[in-house]
């Protein structure tokens, strides 16, 4: 479902479905030792072990290889043959680039990037964790950054665009904002790159520095866009400065930037979290008046707010009222109401809501469904549990 809509239920998915996702680190160490000593026979040695690798296990292997500065190229080539779906994930490819970086093997890095470009792989910030941001002199780290950027620009494609953005994000995460701006100076000043810095500074509550950055952007002809303002809006709401947030919305409109669904979602979520449902509804009315389609998170905020205020019936009515809009997210919202009732101990109400939504042809969220079924079984309500399973089976054919 994403966006933490079901909170602790999704965090406890292993308990619900009985899935173990832990990595066997002894197994990781054994494989790393094979890679370390395998040489040209690595493929044969790995094949002889009849490995059954998961994505998580592959990631952990790469992390250890990178930490120990062990070349991963032969292992990656073996993965290309045996596990092609795993080896071309963004995360694994990024870790492979990081491995080249640790070894200062930029020739291999370029070869790998060219292969990733063909597969339209996008890099994440893990690709650049080898950069000694905190331990090197400014001159030294800038030279290394230039080499990385030269490689990305030479290859181009998805690796270049995603790589530059991820590099800026990684530098910002380590508070190296000057180096992030150095990257922008080399690659070209544009709003999307500046927005990464704006977003990270807002996340770190460095809003005072953001205003200077906005002036710098304007000076270079990079006019702040809706994403820029939404980062600021989120920070103002998070820090409880609602009146300033409202003034910012007015400033946006005066500058010709129209608030979007995310802008209003930020305002509504904050209003709901602070128990100001009346203000949240005023913002929602503005969405409707402007013809903007609300985000699913906006509806979730209202539902959770009603429950927090003890208005459980109002939450269900809110979801019922959305039926006429034929939202694709209706099944998520009904499932959420059922789950929140279950958390309050309203087992039969939760079961009834799942029945109602299935009668409407809406498939419940599986985690919520199975949680209700198991709770019914534990409460000696086996017939209700069987009926619920029978109804749900229509959606699994």
UniProtKB/TrEMBL annotation:
Keywords annotated in UniProt: Repeat
Protein known as: Pentatricopeptide repeat
PPR repeat coordinates: 190-224, 225-259, 260-294
Source domain of life: Eukaryota
Keyword Repeat: yes
Family affiliation: Belongs to the PPR family. P subfamily.
NCBIfam families reported in the protein's UniProt record: PPR
Keyword Translocase: no
InterPro entries: PPR_rpt, TPR-like_helical_dom_sf
Signal peptide: none
Pfam families: PPR, PPR_2
């Amino acid at each position: 479902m994403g966006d933490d809509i079901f909170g602790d239920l999704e965090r406890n998915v292993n308990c619900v479905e009985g899935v173990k996702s832990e990595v066997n680190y002894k197994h990781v160490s054994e494989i790393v030792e094979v890679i370390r000593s395998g040489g040209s026979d690595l493929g044969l040695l790995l094949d002889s072990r009849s490995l059954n690798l998961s994505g998580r296990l592959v990631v952990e292997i790469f992390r250890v290889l990178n930490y120990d500065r062990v070349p991963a190229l032969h292992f990656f080539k073996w993965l290309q043959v045996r596990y092609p779906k795993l080896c071309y994930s963004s995360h694994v490819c990024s870790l492979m680039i990081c491995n080249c970086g640790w070894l200062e093997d930029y020739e291999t890095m370029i070869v790998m990037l060219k292969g990733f470009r063909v597969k339209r792989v996008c890099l994440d910030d893990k690709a650049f964790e080898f950069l000694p941001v905190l331990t090197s002199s400014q001159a030294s780290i800038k030279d290394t950054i230039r080499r990385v950027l030269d490689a990305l620009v030479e290859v181009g494609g998805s690796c270049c665009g995603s790589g530059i953005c991820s590099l800026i994000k990684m530098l910002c995460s380590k508070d190296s904002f000057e180096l992030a701006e150095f990257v922008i100076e080399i690659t070209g000043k544009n709003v999307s790159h500046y927005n990464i810095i704006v977003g990270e500074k807002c996340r770190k509550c460095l809003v005072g520095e953001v205003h200077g950055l906005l002036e710098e952007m304007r000076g270079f002809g990079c006019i702040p866009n809706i994403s820029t303002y939404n980062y600021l809006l989120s920070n103002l709401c998070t820090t409880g400065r609602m009146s300033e947030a409202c003034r910012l919305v007015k400033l946006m409109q005066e500058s010709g930037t129209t608030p979007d669904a995310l802008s209003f979602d930020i305002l509504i979520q904050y209003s709901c979290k602070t128990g100001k449902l009346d203000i949240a509804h005023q913002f929602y009315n503005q969405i409707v008046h402007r013809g903007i389609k609300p985000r699913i998170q906006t509806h979730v905020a209202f539902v959770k707010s009603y429950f927090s205020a003890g208005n459980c019936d109002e939450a269900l009515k809110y979801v019922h009222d959305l039926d006429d809009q034929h939202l694709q997210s209706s099944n998520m919202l009904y499932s959420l109401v059922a789950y929140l009732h279950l958390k309050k101990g309203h087992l039969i109400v939760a079961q009834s809501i799942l029945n109602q939504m299935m009668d409407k042809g809406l498939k419940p969220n599986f985690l919520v469904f199975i949680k209700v079924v198991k709770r019914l079984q534990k409460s000696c309500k086996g017939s209700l549990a069987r009926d619920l399973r029978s109804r749900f089976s229509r959606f699994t054919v």
